[in-house]
Amino acid sequence: MRKLRTIEMNRLSIEEFKEADKLPLTVVLDDVRSLYNVGSVFRSADAFRVEAIYLCGITATPPNAEIHKTALGGEDSVAWRYFAHTEEAVEELHRRGVFVYSVEQVEGSTKLQDLTPRLPAVSREEGENSPAGDRHYALILGNEVKGVKQTVVDMSDGCLEIPQFGTKHSLNVSVTAGIVIWEFARRLLLR
Q1: What gap in Å lies between CA 159 and CA 140, rounded to an integer?
Q2: 26: closest CA among 87, 73, 80?
Q3: Which of 7, 39, 103, 111 fits a disulfide with 70 by CB distance 3.0 to 4.6 angstroms?
């Protein structure tokens, strides 16, 4: 086997990315303090063509050299907005009819393997999958120490939990983002 060169990977330009159909998913960062984590989330969001990232509270925003160090340009391709309070972001998402999940360990959480997002609708006229589908989703990822704020969990439509089998009870926020974004992409785009 030979590793592919970058030119062989047929990557989208930033302009093509902005015009391309997106995964119907918004990632919300609730007081994420590490700029490297923020950048890593941008990079994962770019990889799976996430619709947008909402940066909330103390979460830093681009342009920022430390974010760029791990985003590697993902901060230029993925749409983002800033909210002073995560609750405001959740209210805006709900107004748009978005189903909001907090990724958190709570009573009655949905285990990630049991996630059943609504699949994209099929256009009767064209016989093709609708790229946006009939439901949009949001994932809220919390602070590296405190997780998602309880007030935000209370506003969520549900909570997702990644099962873990070791001695630790949490994953790094950027690792969590990659796992959960991939699961949405796998279930909604790779059918």
Answers
A1: 9
A2: 80
A3: 39
DSSP secondary structure code for residue 34 in this structure: -
Give the strands of the sheet with 50-56, arranged side by side. 80-83, 50-56, 23-30, 137-141, 99-103, 158-161, 110-111
Indicate whether 117 belongs to any domain.
yes
Classify residue 4: in a domain, yes or no. Answer: no
Q: How many domains does the chain have?
A: 1
Provide the whole-model pTM.
Answer: 0.90
> φ, ψ for residue 52 (rounded to 5)?
-165, 165
Residue 13, in any domain of the structure:
no
**Structural domain contains residue 12:** no
Omega cis (within 30) before 117: no
> pLDDT 10s per residue in the chain (191 long)?
999 998 899 899 999 999 999 999 999 999 999 999 999 999 999 999 999 999 999 999 999 999 999 999 999 999 999 999 999 999 999 999 999 999 999 999 999 999 998 754 544 344 344 444 468 999 999 999 999 999 999 999 999 999 999 999 899 999 999 999 999 999 998 86
Pairwise CA distance, residues 85 & 6, whole Å: 39
Domain with 45, as residue range(s), is: 20-188
Instruction: State the DSSP code for 134.
Output: S
- Which residues, 6 or more positions from 13, have their beta carbon under 8 angstroms from its beta carbon? none
